[in-house]
Amino acid sequence: MIRISAIDVFPLRLPMKQTFRTSRGTVGDESAGAPHVYVRVTGDNGAVGWGEARPSPRWSYETPESVCSAIENYIRPALVGQRADDLAAVHRIMNREIAGSLHPGQPIAKAAVDTALHDLIARSCNLPVAGLWQSGSPHPVRLSYLISTTDPEEAARKAREAVAEGYSGVDVKIGLNPANDLDIVAAVKREAPNLFFRVDANQAYRLPQAVQLAKGLERIGVDVLEQPLPANQLLAHAELRRKVSIPIALDESVWSPSGVLEALRSEACDTIVIKLTKMGGLRGARLCGEIARESGLGLLGGGLTESKLGFVASAHLFRYLELTDPVDLNGPMFLKDDPVEGDWPIRNGEAVLPEGPGIGCRISDAKLRQYAASAT
Ligand SMILES: [Mg+2]
Question: Which SUPFAM superfamilies has this protein been placed in (predicted)?
Answer without folding.
Answer: Enolase C-terminal domain-like, Enolase N-terminal domain-like
